[in-house]
Amino acid sequence: MDLKSKIREIPDWPKPGVNFKDIAPLLQDAAAFKQAIDELAAPYIGKQVDVVVAIDARGFLLATAVAYKLDAGVALVRKKGKLPWKTINREYALEYGSNIIEMHEDAVKPGQKVLMVDDVLATGGTMEAAVWMVRQLGGEIIGASFLIGLSFLNGKEKLSGVEVKELVIY
Amino acid sequence: MDLKSKIREIPDWPKPGVNFKDIAPLLQDAAAFKQAIDELAAPYIGKQVDVVVAIDARGFLLATAVAYKLDAGVALVRKKGKLPWKTINREYALEYGSNIIEMHEDAVKPGQKVLMVDDVLATGGTMEAAVWMVRQLGGEIIGASFLIGLSFLNGKEKLSGVEVKELVIY
């Protein structure tokens, strides 16, 4: 199945000039959802992934099913203030202003093999900050997989040294 | 494995008097995570679930893996303003004030068999509102499954006519 055919484009959302990629129709379609998870997981079967990093909030939708498929655990990256225990954090620049994301200090243990998963690779700012935190905790990143890549935003440039995979490219 | 042993209690979070149940250690542990997903899915294997409803944001972490296990799709319940397409919504009361959650109008099709999944059944307000929306869209709810039930808050009372399952009860 062509997964792109299950992604709904929403013009001018969340603001004028942005053509939002809505993955809800893909998630609702059992066959498309299964195919997406299987394709995200496939390159890492047999690679002994210990934890899959899930990024708040849409990343949660894909990362946990990929972790289940790979018999791995799940580590959370959340927006500031959402995690209840001891955290590390990382600030990153947005088009206007900045954002802070956090992980629990024990979310990844030193030496663990880590797969990063998110829905969209846009400018790469969020994933770059998440990669920084995982390395700070001693994790070994074996790849970063995205359902969608927005190639015109050059997000891969921010993720040097990380094997990046994208299932659907715009 | 006793799943409760993998849940971390955080006193006085997010506010004094609340003993928060942190599921992060359970998610991080591959064996505990797999057991939780398998136990959430088990009663519904062979019941032809069409979609699993995932509730923003921690519900996303469990619902999608359960959907994957059941070969079902995923339908999203999100906080107001997060969904990009045409929505229905439902307001529900909180201890102080109220909250509004939304679903896309096409998230569930009439006659589909729907399993609701969330992390915690507390007062039941969120799930009651989500159940209302799924029925509004014509879905047939075959159950609501929670990783954790806070029995002292009597959330089941709000979910009359829904088969409720909880894996870990406080």
Write the layout of secondary structure elements.
The structure is a homodimer of 170-residue chains.
Chain A: E1 8-11, E2 19-22, H1 24-28, H2 30-41, E3 51-55, H3 58-69, E4 73-79, E5 87-93, E6 98-104, E7 113-121, H4 125-136, E8 140-149, E9 164-169
Summarize the structure.
Chain A has 170 residues and is α/β, with parallel strands linked by helices.
Verbal overview:
2 copies of one chain form a homodimer. With 170 residues, the first copy, chain A, is α/β, with parallel strands linked by helices. Chain A has a single domain (45-169), classed as Rossmann fold. Chain A is 24% helix and 35% strand. Chain A is built from 4 helices and 9 strands, in the order E-E-H-H-E-H-E-E-E-E-H-E-E. Chain A has helices spanning 24-28, 30-41, 58-69, 125-136, and strands spanning 8-11, 19-22, 51-55, 73-79, 87-93, 98-104, 113-121, 140-149, 164-169. A 7-stranded mixed beta sheet of chain A has the order 5-6-4-3-7-8-9, with helices on both faces. Chain A is globular, with a radius of gyration of 15 Å.
Computed CA radius of gyration of chain A, to the nearest angstrom: 15 Å
Strand content of chain A: 25-35%
* Major pleated sheet of chain A: 7 strands, mixed
**CATH topology heading of chain A:** Rossmann fold
Question: What descriptors fit this protein?
Answer:
globular; seven-stranded mixed β-sheet; alpha/beta; two-stranded antiparallel sheet; Rossmann fold
